[in-house]
Amino acid sequence: MSDFYSDHQRSLQGEFGSAGLADRLEEFIVRETFDEAAQDFVEAADFFFLSSVDQDGFPTVSHKGGDPGFVKVTGPGTFLFPCYDGNGMYFSAGNIAGHPQVGLLFISFEKPHRVRIHGNARLVRDDEVLRLWPETALAVQADITKMWINCPRYIHRMQALQASKFVPRHGQETPQPEWKSMQEIADVVPQPAHTLKD
């Protein structure tokens, strides 16, 4: 018996008669490396949800968005993504610096599908890596510990309408969000981190 499921998960599987199904699904869908389909799906994503663990052991979930291809698969079980300019709180990045365990959900609402990833992450400041994206002073490298697909039946069908104008793109100036010029905070908004390296 593997260690994929916790004792509490096993208890519920026993209560509801799904232990055999859980074992079969683990056998067929749980992986530690990308197959071609999973790699294509992850690299085509223009967003994902990232869960990290804070100093009190609480999970924090955030949305990470970019243009398709902003997540870069660099090895059989390794991938990179940028830390674009945010609100300066550095919740996810700070959590990763303290606790490397992360969970990621890649999901398509247009063609219902999802891939879940558990892994260990670290912050990357290497210039060669950071040049993969415009306006990036910090990135994350994640190594997969477990990856699996989920049944898409409860994913509501939705359609993307417009890409965010705030995603950094080569060859164009990225506008600043209006909230950064609010009187209450304008005097403490730092210079974008990527400009500090120039």
Could you walk me through the main structural features you see in this protein, from its secondary elements to its overall organization?
There is one protein chain. Helices cover 21% and strands 27% of the residues. Strands 2-1-5-6-7-4-3 form a 7-stranded antiparallel sheet, covered by helices on one side. With 198 residues, the chain is of the alpha+beta class. The protein is built from 5 helices and 7 strands. A hairpin with a 4-residue loop joins strand 5 and strand 6. The relative contact order is 0.15. It has one domain: Electron Transport, Fmn-binding Protein, Chain A (Pnp Oxidase, Chain A, Roll).
Main attributes?
alpha+beta, 198 residues, single chain
Principal-axis shape: globular
The CATH class assignment is Mainly Beta
Q: Estimate nothing, just give the exact number of structural domains.
A: 1
- What's the rounded overall pLDDT mean? 94
H/E series: HHHEEEEHEEHE
Q: Would you count the extended β strands for me?
A: 7
Q: State the secondary-structure class.
A: alpha+beta
What is the CATH H-level superfamily?
Electron Transport, Fmn-binding Protein, Chain A
Report strand %. Answer: 25-35%
Reported by name, the CATH topology is Pnp Oxidase, Chain A
Q: Into which percent range does the helicity of residues fall?
A: 10-25%
Which runs of at least 5 residues are low in confidence (pLDDT < 50)?
none
In what order do the strands lie side by side in the largest sheet? 2-1-5-6-7-4-3
Alpha-carbon distance between the two ends:
53 Å
Computed Rg: 19 Å
Number of DSSP helical runs: 5
CATH architecture tag: Roll
